[in-house]
Design a protein that fits this description.
CATH architecture of the largest domain: Beta Barrel
CATH topology of the largest domain: OB fold (Dihydrolipoamide Acetyltransferase, E2P)
Structural class: alpha+beta
Strand order of the largest sheet: 3-4-5-7-6
Number of domains: 2
Number of helices: 6
Distance between the termini: 111 Å
Number of strands: 7
Helix content: 25-40%
Strand content: 25-35%
Length: 205
């Protein structure tokens, strides 16, 4: 007896079941992830690499940015009608202590002449008989200015206290706001002053 040959193809009722399964939402075939899905998957896998790369970029890029910003702005910021300047940047230029001229002062600092400026530094001052401060010199660091080679006149801002104002000697960092005057003054054949300020407010930081 010859064996019966199997019919090729799927039975009709099986084909119907496949079609009905495809149309049912709870048994829908899974959707393949597209290109966006593959990108997100790759980012999840490499997230630590991205974090490390961002950290390294910040560590090396931020100091470079700060240096470039300092070179462009000379560490001068304007807040309303007051300019906030950095004393160390103001002192960081070469000036002949005998024949120096006002034109030797960097232009960015010369533009502060006559402006209301806020400076922060250390107070170097003599006292009067009543123990009050009538005028004082402000510098970014007494140690660096006065004990590491001859002091330079551009390292100091001579501050005049308004008549009748009571200013006491202060240790540490002092904030001074007032009108800044920028011009080389000389006496006895040498430069004696570059920066002078008429103080409006003196406070301890």
């Amino acid at each position: 007896m010859r064996p019966r040959r199997r019919r090729r193809g799927k039975p009709r009722d099986a084909a119907r079941r496949v079609v009905s399964a495809r149309n049912r939402p709870d048994r829908a075939p899974p959707i393949r992830a597209g290109r966006a899905g593959s990108i997100f998957k790759s980012l999840r896998q490499d997230r630590w690499k991205l974090i490390i790369a961002a950290s390294v970029s910040f560590m090396f890029g931020y100091p470079v940015f700060c240096k470039l910003d300092s070179l462009v702005t000379h560490d001068i910021r304007q807040y309303g009608g007051v300019y906030v300047a950095d004393l160390r940047a103001m002192a960081d230029f070469n000036l002949d202590q005998i024949d120096g001229q006002t034109s030797d002062i960097p232009l960015a600092f010369r533009k502060l002449d006559g402006k209301r400026v806020e400076l922060a530094g250390q107070m170097w001052c003599p006292l009067d008989a009543a123990g009050q401060v009538r005028s004082f010199d402000l510098c970014y660091s007494i140690t660096n200015c006065c004990f590491r080679g001859p002091p330079q006149t551009q390292h100091f801002v001579h501050v005049s206290v308004p008549p009748g104002a009571a200013v006491r000697p202060m240790q540490g960092i002092v904030c001074v706001t007032g009108t800044l005057h920028v011009e080389v003054e000389r006496s006895g054949g040498a430069v004696i002053s570059v920066y002078r300020m008429d103080a409006e407010r003196v406070s301890q930081r």
